[in-house]
Amino acid sequence: MERCKEMILLHSGRFSRRDSHGGGDDVDRACNKIKEVDFFSESRERKLDEAGGLRDCRGGDGSLACGDAGDINTGLALTVHSVGAPTAEEEEDKPNNKMHLITIQDELNRLGHENRRLRGMLDQLTRNYSALYNQFLLVMQQKANETQHIQKENQTDPSNPVRLSAQQFLDPRPTSLQETNEHTNGDEEEHSPSLKNSSDGPSEREINIPFNRRKISVEEGPLDQQISPSWRDNNSPRQAQERSTDSMHELPCRKARVSVRARSDAPMISDGCQWRKYGQKMAKGNPCPRAYYRCTMAIGCPVRKQVQRCAEDKTVLVTTYEGNHNHPLPPAAAAMANTTSAAATMLLSGTANTTRDSSLMMGSASAAAPLFGHPLVPFASSLATLSASAPFPTITLDLTQAPLPPAAGTPLHLLQRGASHGHHPTTSSFPLAPLSMYLPHAKVGQRHHSVAETVSAAITSDPNFTAALAAAISSIMGAPRGDGAANNGSAAAPHGVPGSPQFPQSCTTFSTN
DNA sequence: CGTGTTTGACCAGCGC
DNA sequence: GCGCTGGTCAAACACG
Predict the structure, then answer these.
(1) Which nucleotides of B are covered by protein (CB under 7 A)?
(2) At CA A265, angle to CA A262 and CA A270, rounded to 5?
(3) How far apart are CA A196 and CA A205, in angstroms?
(4) Cβ proximity of A412 and A405 under 8 Å
(5) What is the DSSP letter of A252?
(6) Looking at residue A116, what is its pLDDT?
(7) Distance measured from the CA of protein residue A4 to the C1' of nucleotide C9, in angstroms
(8) Are residues A269 and A393 in the same domain?
(9) A62: which of A20, A237, A331, A407 is 20 to 30 A away, CA to CA?
(10) Domain finish residue from A87, A119, A145
(11) Burial class (CB in 10 A: 0-12, 13-18, 19+), A396
(12) How many domains is chain A built from?
């Protein structure tokens, strides 16, 4: 089926051409594999026929001898004129035609100018949006820092949740600012100039410094373990060590992870990529083994994923992705990458309140406390959780509320494709359609369900949202990446952002089935 | 025979 | 230092 979509993309020109010949049902028929072959052969034959026809119909004198030669429709509104001496009527119309040509050229020029002007406006708008969105995030960040500072001053209780922004612990980029402001003492709230000045109003300097820093002072258990009670102890030696070695968290090699929980009977979800299993382990606290896969779509692709069933609910398959693809993704995977990363980045773009009770990780069925306060996504907290689990920050998307797929092994993007054909009434537009799949987990977000649907519908009805969002995220994340889904040229990709926004050092190709 | 999977061994990080 | 655990490697094996 991926091939089907690919074909439609690759041969859209032929579809339109064939449509002009009354072959409009080819799009549907092409989804049938057998008819794919028919389509190609038919198309090829038609092409040959036309070429041959032109040759055959052209007589030795160059005139069109065949009766149906005039019916040739190239699909480009081109007409075949006979080549011969101009008639008297044509001679009369020459001045008129010249005037007409000039008018058309003027019109073309005018439209060209208009096009350039609109493009410029769009660029400007995108830039403004990005800048504004940046400012918004920074204000939120500053506000969070202030709150944190106040909390720290007012109470010495170390178990208070620490707020941190998504960018802080997802952005692996080492910056000069980071390095110059490196503190061996992790108590940066007291040492960071940004926080010192945070109450004096925003400034470029005070904003940028904390923004590029990743402060992981929240500790969670391993990905697939129950939350140990001891980890709540903020004075544990490990946490003390984390605080004292803050620079550890700013290593460029630190990777973010994307974890997806979904109900599936299949042993592994299908996400459009090729994976090779390289290991399997029994993980502590989970009777189900954990499988390790690496991407084999390109030599040296660093993307890996772990697949494990949830200990509490064996029907729930937890897939954790890590790394960025160093190769173009197939359309299906790219679409999913765009969709899911847009959803994830939307969640991540808000200031995250990482609480210690939050975990939707493998083997843990504990209820997720709200993590995000994104103004656009009031229900975000019930869709995904963001955790600063050592050594990898992980965002977990809980898709277990989504309906069980009709057949094991069915890729989610196919379900979504089916949804676009009316099977799923809540999904209407691709690639944002899957957003509606991010319904809150029943245990944690039932009260938000209707809100989720409402907001999801609102988002999916606005295809520009992704583009603007991607622009904003990319402006936050830095230069656009040239790998992964970015190479596949999403329709949702805004100007200057070739593809989906991606988590730094994280894979955004994930789907469920 | 080539490719992918299985599985025990190995290594590194962390806690005690 | 030792044991535990997660993650990876690589030889053996299975399969088409």
Answers:
(1) 4-9, 13-16
(2) 65
(3) 12
(4) yes
(5) T
(6) 80
(7) 38
(8) yes
(9) A20
(10) A145
(11) buried
(12) 2
pLDDT at A339: 55
Can you give the pLDDT at residue A511?
A: 38
Q: Note the pLDDT tens digit of each residue in A271-302.
A: 778 888 999 988 888 888 899 998 888 877 88
**What's the CA angle centered on A169, arms A440 and A219, to 5 degrees?**
75
Å: A400 CA to C3 C1': 37
Which residue's entry shows tokens 């594999």? A33
Instruction: Tell me the CATH number at A296.
Output: 2.20.25.80
Q: Is the peptide bond before A504 cis (omega within 30 degrees of 0)?
A: no
Neighbours of A35 (CB within 10 A): 14
For residues A337, A343, A346, A349, the Cα torsion angle rounded to the nearest 10 degrees is -60
C-alpha to C-alpha distance for A468 and A88, rounded to whole angstroms: 58
Q: Which of A404, A358, A351, A362 is nearest to A382 (CA)?
A: A358
Q: What is the CA angle A199-A203-A207, rounded to 5?
A: 85
Low-confidence ranges of chain A (pLDDT < 70): 1-94, 123, 125-127, 129-138, 140-141, 143-256, 332, 335-393, 401-513
Nearest to A303 by CA among A266, A263, A261, A258: A258
Partner residues linked to A351 by β-bridges: A165
Are A416 and A432 contacting, i.e. CB atoms less than 8 angstroms apart? Answer: no
User: Which of residues A338, A363, A398 is at a domain's end?
Assistant: A398
- Statement: the CB of A236 is under 7 Å from strand B: yes
Nucleotide nearest to A268 (CA to C1'): B5
A227, part of any domain: no
Express each pLDDT in A202-224 by its tens digit: 333 333 333 333 333 333 333 33
User: What pLDDT, on a 0 to 100 scale, did the predictor assign at position A260?
Assistant: 84
Beta bridge partners of A305: A293, A321
CA separation, residue A349 to residues A47, A128, A332, A460, A477 (Å): 50, 17, 25, 18, 10
Q: Is A10 inside any structural domain?
A: no
Q: With respect to residue A360, please indicate whether it lies within any of the assigned structural domains.
A: no
The CA radius of gyration of chain A, in Å to the nearest whole number, is 28
DSSP codes joined into one string, A40-89: HHHHHHHHHHHHHHHHHHB-TTS-B-STTGGG---SSS--PPP-S---HH
A316 DSSP β-pair partners: A263
User: Residue holding tokens 């054909």?
Assistant: A421
> Is A324 in contact with A502 (CB distance < 8 Å)?
yes
Give CA–CA dist A35/A68, Å, rounded. 28
A498 sits in the region (left: phi over 0; alpha: psi -120 to 50; else beta) called beta
Nucleotides of C under 7 A from a protein CB: 4-10
Nearest nucleotide to the CA of A237, by C1', is B15
A292 touches strand C (CB under 7 A): yes
Q: Is A108 part of any domain?
A: yes
Domain span holding position A131? 101-145
